[in-house]
Design a protein that fits this description.
With about 230 residues, this protein is α/β, with parallel strands linked by helices. The chain has helices at about 5-10, 25-35, 50-60, 95-105, 110, 125-135, 170-175, 175-180, 185-205, 210-230; strands spanning about 15-20, 40-45, 70, 85-90, 115-120, 140-150, 150-160. It has a seven-stranded mixed beta sheet, sandwiched between helices. Helix 2 (about 25-35) links the parallel strand 1 and strand 2.
């Protein structure tokens, strides 16, 4: 098992149940059961292949009867009455956004609820996911980071509620108040500063007005990130 998945599972506190959407070999459900989680666990995936791998993993772990496997798109086949925590991990932030948008708004049983928690781990485009959350009735309650195989991963916990305003840079990194005590704070911000500086350098001689505007936006983003680094200990 990985540190990343162990951390994600540890954020699912005791409750009614957990849905692991887009399950990967059912690793998170296995960690949850082995750590003593007593609630329902549903592992879903849109494809049969991952579900078959999940079934084999559960069988090898002796947990076949303690996790429900569901073939469905996102939350569409998950019984909401059995779940109060939704985990979506290991896929792009834009894909996670689509899963949440279809499930939490198109399904009345989810749309009417406000008593659940989201644990989300995007591998790319966290800014799209955060933008969707804070503009669609969710408050990001905590941010976590972990490093695995040289890669830095961000984990976002959210629940229905009112969100404070986010600066553009914070959509990429998380709000300063929630990340400044992380041991990965400097590496997280430095990674984005380096990325945006490379992008700005490639656009500094751009002729088109649209590209010049994009370059100015990137420069402003770098300034916000550098200001956040300077305010870490405020």
């Amino acid at each position: 098992m990985s540190n990343r998945l162990e951390l994600i599972a540890s954020l699912a506190k005791s409750g009614v149940g957990v849905a692991d959407v887009g399950t990967d070999h059912a690793y998170i459900p296995i960690i949850l059961r082995r750590s003593g989680y007593k609630g329902n666990i549903v592992a879903s995936d849109i494809n049969e292949g991952p579900l078959e791998k999940a079934r084999i993993s559960l069988e090898n772990a002796g947990l076949t009867d303690s996790v429900e496997l569901v073939l469905c798109d996102g939350l569409s086949g998950v019984d909401s009455s059995k779940v109060d925590t939704v985990i979506v991990a290991g896929i792009g932030g834009d894909t996670i956004t689509g899963i949440l948008d279809r499930g939490l708004y198109d399904m009345p049983e989810w749309a009417a609820r406000s008593d659940y928690k989201l644990i989300l781990q995007p591998v790319t485009k966290p800014e799209i996911l955060r933008f969707w959350l804070v503009n669609n009735g969710f408050a990001i309650t905590s941010e976590w980071q972990t490093e695995e195989n040289g890669m830095l991963y961000q984990i976002i916990c959210a629940q229905p509620g009112e969100s404070p305003k986010y600066r553009d840079a914070e959509l990429y990194t998380g709000r300063l108040q929630q990340i400044q005590d992380s041991k990965y704070f400097d590496k997280l911000l430095s990674t984005y500063i380096k990325r945006f500086k490379l992008a700005a350098n490639s656009l500094q001689n751009a002729d088109k007005a649209s590209l010049r505007a994009w370059n100015m936006m990137i420069i402003n983003m770098i300034a916000e990130l550098e200001e956040m680094k300077g305010r870490q200990n405020d």
